[in-house]
Amino acid sequence: MLRVAVVGGGPSGSCAAEVLAKAGIQTWLFERKLDNAKPCGGAIPLCMVQEFDLPESIIDRKVNNMKMISPSNREVDIHLDNPAEYIGMCRREVFDAFLRNRAADLGAQLVNGLVQRIDTGKNRQGPYTLHYADYAGGGLTGELKSLEVDLIVGADGANSRVAKAMDAGDYNVAIAFQERIRLPPEEMAYYEDLAEMYVGTDVSPDFYAWVFPKYDHVAVGTGTMQKNQSLIKGLQKGIRERASNRLLHGEVIKVEAHPIPEHPRPRRVVGRMALVGDAAGYVTKSSGEGIYFAAKSGRMCAEEIVAASGHGARIPSEKDLKVYLKKWDKKYGATYKVLEILQNVFYSNDPAREAFVEMCDDKDVQRLTFDSYLYKRVVPINPWQTIKLTLLTFGAYLRGQAFAPTTYKPVPSAVRSEAEMASILAADAAKSSGLNGSDPSHPAIVVKADPKPAAESGEREPILAGKS
Fold it and tell me: pLDDT tens across 365-403, in order?
C-alpha cells in the first residue's frame, strides 16, 4: 500500500490529504500549529465555496461591496448586484482547521508535529524518512520521531523544508503584514458587507493595502516585494493612517507577518516529492490571491497520485507526478501571466494607480473582474469592449498624471461628520498624551497588545528572513 506524507496542514495540504485518504491511501498530515492564524486577507471566491463544499459556518462575512481607494482618496464603489454572489471572508485559523479536520475524519492521520529533516534516499528517489518533533504530548520540544514513506507532498509554505530537501530552488517572496483591529459597533457596522482596497506609494510601492471585515474585527494589512522588506512596518503605518478615520477607537488585538511567493519555484516535482500551494509558488500577482489556488493545487496533485498509483496499489514515478504540473500550467499559466502584466503596469507609480481605480468605475471592467475572480474563468470580450478598454486605459492614465498626489491624507469617516471626528480626535489626543498603548500615528487607535508578529515566534525559521 502506498504511503504518503503531506507536510503542512493549510488549504493545500489538507485538500491533498482529503483526496488521498478518501481513495484509501495511507496518509499522514503534518502540522505544527493546529491553531495557526496565517496573516492573510482571508478572501475566498464564490466558486470555492461550491467546489470544495464549504459550510457557511466558516465564513465570517459575505462581502457584496468593495471600495477601491486611489492615492488621492478617490473612492470607487463596486457592487455585486446578484444577492447570491459574494466574496467570502474567513479567519484562517477557522478555515484551515475545518479542512484539516475533514481530511482527518476521512482517514488521514493528523500529526501535530514539525518536520525537521528529510532523508531523501538515493538520487532523491526515496523511500523518504521524515524526522520530526511530535507535540501531541505537549511540551516545548516535543518527542523526536521518524516515519518512512514512499511519497511526499510539500505543502509547508514559503519556508518549505520539503522544497529544501528536494532542491527545488529559491524564489523571491513578498512580505504580508497585517493587524487585526477590533472596532466599536458603529464603525464595525460600516464594514458589515464591505471590503476596502487602498493603493498608493504610502501603503505599498508595488501592491495594495486592505481593510477586510471578519467576525468581530477588521484585518488591516499591506504587502510589498522582497526588495522593499525593510519598508513594511512603515507601509503598515501608512494604511493605518489612511484608514484611521474609519478605524476610530480601534484596538489592535493581533499583529501578523508572513512571506508570500512572487513566482513558482524552478522545480516543483523531484523524484517522488511534489510541491503545492505557497511551497510551489502558487500566489497570483496583482491580486495576491493564494487560498483558492493552494487548495486547488493540493487537490489536483493528489488526484494525479491516486490515478497514477491505482488507488495506492503502486508507487508513482517522477514522470507520473509531473503530469500534475502539466495540467496545472495549462489550466492556470495564462492567468498568472496576465495578472503579472497588470501588476507591472498599474502598480508601478501613483499616476498608474489613479488610472487603475478610475477604470474600476466602469461596469464592464467590474463585471469582467468579478466573473474572473468569483468563478475562476476567462471571460471572453468582444471587439468593441477591447477598443473601449484600450481607450479607457489610455485616457485614465493621462488623467492619473494630473490627480496623483504628492502627499497623502486620511479618508473621511464613513459614519461621522468632520466636526464630530475633529472633536473626538482632539479629546483622544489630550487623553492619551504621554500614555503607553496609544498609537502615536493616530491617537484614536489603541494597541491592546503589541507582540512580535505572530508568525515570527515559535519553532519555525524567522519568517521575515526573505528566504524560502
Answer: 887 777 777 777 665 566 665 665 666 666 666 666 677
Q: What is the DSSP string of 338-371?
A: HHHHHHHHHTSSHHHHHHHHHHTTSHHHHHHHHH
Rounding to the nearest 10 degrees, give the CA dihedral for residues 330, 286, 223, 39. Answer: -50
Angle CA 466–48–45, to nearest 5: 70
Are 26 and 4 in contact by the 8 Å Cβ rule? The answer is: yes
**Angle of CA points 323, 325, 327, to nearest 5°:** 70
Q: CA triplet 420, 424, 427: central angle to 5 degrees?
A: 140
Question: What is each CA distance from 372 to 59, 376, 377, 435, in whole angstroms?
Answer: 21, 5, 5, 48
pLDDT tens digits for 285-304? 877 788 999 999 999 999 99
Cell of 318: 517522477
Work out the number of other CB atoms within 10 angstroms of the CB of residue 318.
14
Give CA–CA dist 251/438, Å, rounded.
Answer: 9
The cell 516529492 sits on which residue? Answer: 273
Q: Residues for the chain: how many in total?
A: 468
**Contact criterion met (CB below 8 Å) for 284 and 334:** no
- pTM for the model stands at 0.88
Domains and their CATH numbers in the chain: 3-42+91-171+266-336 (3.50.50.60), 173-261+416-456 (3.30.9)
